[in-house]
Amino acid sequence: MKRIIIVGGSFGGLTAAFRLKDKLGAHADITLISDNEIFTFTPSLPWVAMGWKNPEKIIFDIRRPLQRKNIHFLLGEVTLFDLNRQMVEVAGRVEHYDHLLIATGSDLDFHAIPGLGPDAHTHSILTMNHTLSAKERLSHVLSADKGNIVIGCTQGASCLGPAYELIMMIDMELRRKRKRHNFNIHFITPEPFLGHFGIGGAGKAQRLIEDDFLDKDIQFHLNAQVEEVTIESILLKDGSCIPQDFSMIVPPFLGVSAVRKSEGLGNPKGFIPVDDGYRHANEAIHAVGVAVAIAPPYPTSVPVGVPKTGNMTIQMANIAVEDIISTIQNKPRPIHSPLSVTCIADQGNTALYFTVSPVLPPRQKIFTRKAVWAHMLKLGLERYEMWRMSNGFSSLPG
């Protein structure tokens, strides 16, 4: 019986655990390790920040579906990966593996810029706790008669979508309250153009977003580099000083501490290089999701990271599982299609939908639309994914 350890309890870790159990059954002893027993559907956090979504609707205890599938669960933070001895250090104990799948996500590098982060002068909507803090402050600002709001991403950020969503939701809410004319709204981004998203753009998404920002009088700053944040303003390298009463700025990402400390595992920033089967050079190890190193398709004057969305992470997990199974069953490694991505950037009452395949150019397929149906589709996808994972399904049953 093969001993398989999965580290991470979000999209990648849960999908991989359920699928491996479905495929291997009693022939594999699977343990999932996570530093948090609560799954959060992170794509819905912008709605939580706006007060439009009950946080309880987008969380569940991962121990229930894991127990139902006879998958072991270990609560704790991994402190070290020992590649030579094929073991993981966690919660004061050592766990050995035959196969390891790392789906840890990343650390948020708020220390990269003075004044950045929830413990300083900006907010975040990348975790539930951060989002609840942002919600409280944003509610106060939106109830005022006037204000200055700054939303965006720092140089090196790779999760740009939530910033695009939040700024459009804030604009909509202020117009609903009939006081948009009393608020200055700025968007800062390291991208060379709006809708670049770290992947070189997505068809006509650039034009759609630019038109929206211009029509809604949202001021945007391209190729922006944040130098410092104070309680009153955001300072950019080009000398711009943008006043703020509320700001949500996506920070740069780092690989998690355990990866950064483990010799031979990650690159200098702690992200894990893998091949098209998401296998590390050490063949006992696979990695998926935000933990994976993906090089940008084109150089940009200011660094922009390649995103790894929930949709992309689920694809990676399924590919990695097939790769692991081929090794266990002594079969040829499968040939994998390039990663694609479907993303829905919600705007409150409508949404921008785009599909690109493959993720990195040149591409076979690009489809981009802005429509109310895309907003409804995002609501439906939240319900489906919450149902699927909370019930232990790796895909649709039947």
Can you give a write-up of this model?
There is one protein chain. The chain is an alpha/beta fold. The chain folds into 2 domains: 193 residues, FAD/NAD(P)-binding domain, CATH 3.50.50.100; 143 residues, 3-Layer(bba) Sandwich (FAD/NAD(P)-binding domain). Helices cover 28% and strands 25% of the residues. The strands form 7 sheets. The chain has a 5-stranded parallel β-sheet with strand order 5-2-1-9-19. It has a 4-stranded parallel β-sheet with strand order 13-12-11-17, with helices on one face. A 3-stranded antiparallel β-sheet has the order 6-7-8. A hairpin with a 4-residue loop joins strand 20 and strand 21. The longest helix has 19 residues.
Strand order of the largest sheet: 5-2-1-9-19
- Global shape: globular
Low-confidence runs (pLDDT<50, min 5 residues)? none
Q: How much of the sequence is in beta strands? A: 25-35%
How many helices? 9
Q: What number of structural domains do the residues give?
A: 2
CATH topology group of the largest domain: FAD/NAD(P)-binding domain
What Rg do the Cα atoms give? Answer: 21 Å
Chain-averaged pLDDT: 96
Structural class: alpha/beta
The profile of the biggest β sheet is: 5 strands, parallel
Helix proportion: 25-40%
The CATH C-level name of the largest domain is Alpha Beta
| CA(first)-CA(last) distance | 27 Å
Secondary structure tally: strands? 22
CATH-derived architecture of the largest domain? 3-Layer(bba) Sandwich
